Amino acid sequence: MSACTLVSVSTVLGCHSCFRVDMFSKGTKRKFSDDGGEMSDESLGGANVSSSYNLQRQSLLDMSLIKLQLCHMLVEPNLCRSVLIANTVRQIQEEMTHDGSWQAVTEAFCNGSQSPSERLVATEVLCRSREQDAEPKLFSVISYEGCREEEVVADETLCSVSVSDAASNVCLSESVGHCWETGELRVVESDEETSEGSRLGPGDDDDDDEDDEDEDEVDEEEESSREDSKSMGQVFGTFEIKNGSSGPDSALEELFSDVDASYYDLDTMLTGIQSAPKMGPYDLLDSLAPSHGPPSLGSPSNCRSDLNELDHIMEIIVGS
Amino acid sequence: AAKNGAGCSNSCLFQRHGFNFHSHPNSADVISTVEFSQSGEFLATGDKGGRVVIFQREPQGEYNVYSTFQSHDPEFDYLKSLEIEEKINKIRWLPQLHSALFLLTTNDKTIKLWKVSERDKQPEGYNLKDEEGRVKDISKITSLQVPVLRPMDLLVEASPRRVFSNAHAYHINSISINSDCETYLSADDLRINLWNLSITDRSFNIVDLKPDNMEDLTEVITVAEFHPHHCHLLAFSSSTGTTRLCDMRSRALCDQHAKLFEEAVDPASRSFFSELISSVSDVKFSHSGRYLLTRDYLSAKVWDLNMEKKPVETYQVHDYLRSKLCTLYESDCIFDKFECAWNGTDSVIMTGAYNNFFRMFDRASRRDVTLEASREVCKRRAVLRPRRVCIGRKRRESDICVDSLDFRKKVLHTAWHPTDNIIAIAARNNLYIFQDRHSPSGHHGVHRIEQETAPQLEDTPPQ
């Protein structure tokens, strides 16, 4: 499934001839529907274009999520790059939340229990783990109040299969240059502030800032206990793009099974480092491998060989 | 006249002194930083393999290799099971006081102060040891001699005098020596520390962007630099497109900026890539100290320190990429960090681009030129031809179409001699040094402008 999406993304991005979608901005679409759809042809055209805009936005979101997950196992990834990608993801999700598409997607999967609504799920979806227990995550970018559906949404977003021919003619970058109506932007921002205020966990790790290492470790412990209290384990428990574990993964799982994950600095979470690679991305990478040619998205084989190297190094360290 | 007339018209006359380090390029040779010494007599490069090469300018004007040493080695962080790259991120020179050279080099985690000195004499005639250094039998010594210094072949030695380590939890991106020449700053993604050059076991934290909750992190520091004259002022830029000027006199922790330079983004043109392309990849104070030059992904901006709201000048480096941002995002090219440079008189600014192109902008005349640094195009002593990128059809044979640009060939690191019209361009593992033919060392009597073709302007109307 995800392979299909990526193929379409590549096609989209590889195109040179494209029509400019920016004239068909979201705002324009709204205008049409507000006017009661007097011109059925145009509103239909507008709807088509805005759905391709949504598709492109989705592709951009998918691409960003993948970027955050594909990590260089041996060297610490670039924090600046990770922060910029995470901010992009957040922006997309804000917009999707605002125009209701996020809610529509989550409602489809959430059995009608909770709706994320203003909750900015942002990079909750970035946390991938097959751990069933509530062991502290090794990286979690933005952990908002954990909701199952957010994680399932991630599944959906990465596996959306809709491929439309129109998409292949559209230049993605132009499409995202839509108009942001200032009013909407403000509304989104205040929502963000509200949800941030309600989201923040105990601030008692503030006092513990001594020097860097201590601070990091204390932060990490604070966060790990905080996360335990959330339903994090639930969040990731059911997430699977693909079932079953592949060879290297299970070998590494064994290797890391007795490693105390809380030992690792959570500050690296934004960098997407996963020291215990029990994770969806490798599943994702597996599904990517056959269909995906260009190395620009990060060749899965590189991650695999890096993984083997890490395996090797860990063996040396652990002395096995 | 030579020093003053560094306009764009002269930039057509640059010559090439190409240095190819290795015939078989491998990634360890990729040059990661280039820096002229404060006098311009020396030029240092650092590469991905942790090596530093220092060039010295000969009397005839050419730069030749003076010293090579291994500055940093790869390390392994056992705590995080991660490698620490030996790649040299930045080199900064101390002012030269006597014959020895001092420079700071840094990788992601550790800064080192190196002393590079010459030895051309060695002592001979010791009483207690022989020429090979073995201790003599005292009973065999019958007379005393005074050891003398005899000439030997010139030996250039580099030795680490200070190692400043364990002060950065994140990757160091900048170092900058204060005008007081006693202190320097080092900046990583979230913090800036102030050091004394003589003290290695402690530093003062002066900027800290780390949020209490790392999940709130939305902004990182990209570059930091001290003001060239005012030892209390420093500037640092961020991934959100802001540049802050901080005054160390007002408070010990400079989280509160004295000035914030940011240009408002037109809401109508906002896109998901707006923040990405606004991220500042380099900041340089002008030599005069009056202006700041910032480089973001598509443009270079000159700011007057007295005006925060918008830059006084904006130069589009490669605006034709604006419609390709998604592709560049996919390939990670959008995260490339281009450096920028001022010439000695602050009249011209320079920065790199793709396809081994680099661009120069003359601030007064608003003329600009695109040049290419590549072996195929540059022959020794040849004059560089201006290049042009076209979006649609080629108008001239020498034009390059946007879609033909090679995005793997990026000129990220450029440096301009502090006073003369000499520039150093790093293109992957090659270093190009270009000199203005008509003003090599300022002693040229005739100041003639000889051009084969008129300088190309980006918006030249079709012929």
- What overall geometry of chain A do the principal axes of the alpha carbons give? globular
The DSSP helix count of chain A reads: 13
Rg of chain A (C-alpha, Å): 21 Å
Say what oligomer this is.
heterodimer
- CATH C-level class of one domain in chain B is Mainly Beta
Show the largest interface.
Answer: A-B, 65 and 49 residues
Briefly note the structural class of the backbone of chain A: mainly alpha
* Average pLDDT figure of chain A: 50
CA radius of gyration of chain B is: 24 Å
Write the CATH fold name of one domain in chain B.
Methylamine Dehydrogenase, Chain H
Low-pLDDT windows of residues of chain B? 1-18, 439-463
β-strand percent of chain A reads under 5%
InterPro entries (chain B): PP2A_PR55, PP2A_PR55_CS, WD40/YVTN_repeat-like_dom_sf, WD40_repeat_dom_sf, WD40_rpt
Keywords (chain B): Repeat, WD repeat
Family (chain B): Belongs to the phosphatase 2A regulatory subunit B family.
GO molecular function, one term (chain B): protein phosphatase regulator activity
